[in-house]
Amino acid sequence: MNKKYRVAIVGATGAVGREMLRMLQVRRFPYISIKALASERSSGKPLSADNPSIIVEKLTPESVKDVDIALFSAGATVSKEYAPLFVKAGAVVIDNSSAWRMDPDIALVVPEVNAHVLTSKTRLIANPNCSTIQMVVALQPLHAFAKLTKVIVSTYQSTSGAGQAAMDELRSQTTDVLAGKKPAPPRKMPATIAFNCVPQIDVFEENGFTKEEMKMVYETRKIMGIADLPLSATAVRVPVFRSHSESVWAQFEKPLSAVQARELLQKAPGVIVVDDPANKKYPQPIDAEGKTETFVGRIREDLATPNGLVMWVVSDNLLKGAASNAVQIAETMIEKGLI
Question: Are residues 145 and 39 in the same domain?
């Protein structure tokens, strides 16, 4: 009989937590039980109308009992406090917050890229930032063939990346503008998001880049194992509810044509190539929503730089950018016999 696992979702009532549960069910993960953990505010309530039998429990130090795999999506503060407790109690923890990503002793994993870093001693794994995940999934097969030497990326990130409050703000502001009213002042976003683009995600650092932009730099280097990779990012919030888009410019050591890049990406795990501009076929956020793959299109050779390539990369930030990548890490560990 195949082994089944006792799974806990920490932060189960949030957008990513709910998607984690859905991924466990849709992907037929071998679980025997699911423990939904959240704050006291949600304790005692059914997790959702679709899952009335799963009752939310308050997260406490006692919650670590009888758990084999814990999927965390409750923020860095909670992860810092509780992830070590679950590990100490014998669970494997996969954390979606920023708490552990840049810790040199913690694996930062995208299964299509660096599953090889997972070992029998790995018990705490960091799930990367959403914008980083989709980019490295697209870059890895090209890097394996031609060796990356530089990356410049501009992101067009949906409001769901900032949580439900940001999505609600987009909805209410859009309603106001369409009704001819002045939208209410932003609360979650740094500026009005309806019919606008905001070139700030997270706080600004001393070098003029935002924290989100620097995450892409540091995390990409760690995941792809290229410690000195030159990478520059500009992260922009756009009036889209779900799915992030990215314009990725990459330079390689070896020549790499657009035709070769398409062939490599068509064979790559987790990638779907949608690249027929003449017939208006290219990746779009509305098409990626609800899907776990990373979509790549508009693949073309750069006109200004030798061995340069430009492409458009789109993925559902709540799925491959968070929930499905976390579940996929657990599946990979099971396949490798590490849990």
Answer: no
**Within 10 Å of residue 199's Cβ, how many Cβ atoms?**
13
Q: What is the CA radius of gyration of the chain?
A: 20
pTM, 2 dp: 0.93
User: Which one of 116, 130, 143, 197 is the catalytic residue?
Assistant: 130
Please check whether residues 273 and 296 belong to one and the same domain.
yes
DSSP 127: P
Scored b (16 or more CB within 10 A) or e, 176-192 reads eeeeeeebeebeebeeb
Question: What are the b/e assignments for 151-164, b being 16+ CB within 10 Å?
Answer: bbbbbbbbbbbbee
Active site residue 197: no
Nearest Cα residue to 329 out of 82, 14, 6, 27: 27
Q: DSSP 3-state assignment of 255?
A: coil
The torsion of the CA quartet 308, 309, 315, 318, rounded to 10 degrees, works out to 0
Q: How does residue 293 score in pLDDT terms, banded at 50, 70 and 90?
A: very high
97 and 171 housed in the same domain:
no
Asked if 130 is an active-site residue, the reply is yes
pLDDT digits (tens, 9 = 90+) for 11-21: 999 889 999 99
